[in-house]
Amino acid sequence: MVGSAIMRRLRESGYKDLMSRTPQELDLMRQSDVEAFFGRERPEYVFMAAAKVGGIWANSSSPADFIYDNLMIETNIIHSSHLNGVKKLLFLGSSCIYPKHCPQPMREEYLLSDYLESTNEPYAVAKIAGIKMCQSYNSQYGTDYISVMPTNLYGPGDNFDLKTSHVLPALIRKFHEAKIRGDQSVEVWGSGTPRREFLYVDDLADACVFLMKRYDRSDIINIGVGKDLTIRALAETIAKVVGFDGDLRFDATKPDGTLLKLLDVSRLDALGWRARTSLVEGIRRTYEWYLGRQ
Ligand code: GDP
User: Fold this and answer.
1) pTM of the model
2) I want to staple 169 with a disulfide (CB 3.0 to 4.6 A). Which of 69, 128, 158, 253 is the partner?
3) Residue to substitute in 52, 152, 167, 263 for testing ligand 1 pocket (most ligand atoms within 8 angstroms of CB)
């Protein structure tokens, strides 16, 4: 989802000498394959969007896959970039690198100030390792590797698998299928009270291209919209866009995860970047994309 959005954004801006690889074409977990690719293709600028990502259920049930896959992808790409003289690399982290009880909104300097949320700790530790790799290569080798921390993302290309997806695509699918079947109610996991912030993936891509050109510090930088809402409010908004008018049933046996997760975006704001797509518009476009695949 993120890689495709960055490619769309670069093409729109007129960049021509672009290269990308699907997981079938290049297995980023194989060190020798990644080194051979970098040695052959010699990319100058690298957007590191590749990662194993997933929602609360996927993270809690496959912690080994989340830590192993992400560590392998990061070490292979970052080290190969260094060996092959990449001019600049942008590493995508995640808002779950911040502590479980982080003061809100979460500022960049709160990284590693307290312990992490347990439902996605292995994933978060892998992402923190990626940040520390970028910073270490910058300080030891003088490279220009930047780390950006996006909030929860959604949009075309999202994962709609009900077990492994994040909440927003999961609810689009649940409401759509309930509408078609004529169901009276839809199950929403947890209490509905946790708050989350959602960024449309094309806005994220725009911010990544902006920062690749404008940001060159080792300090991490947040990318978000600066506003959050409860899972209940999100569910009501999605139900309206999809046209489902039944009830919401909250399943308290499912985990809530962290209760608050709002990024402080003043650092990005000060550079002059702001998200453009409203939540309703973003959900509408994502639902259209989902319908196009049915
Ligand atoms: P998180 O942001 O890492 O916690 O990941 P998710 O996007 O998976 O979950 C966010 C919140 O939405 C959690 O409180 C979930 O319990 C809640 N949620 C409600 N319904 C669903 C659902 O159908 N799927 C998912 N993944 N989360 C849901």
Assistant:
1) 0.96
2) 158
3) 167
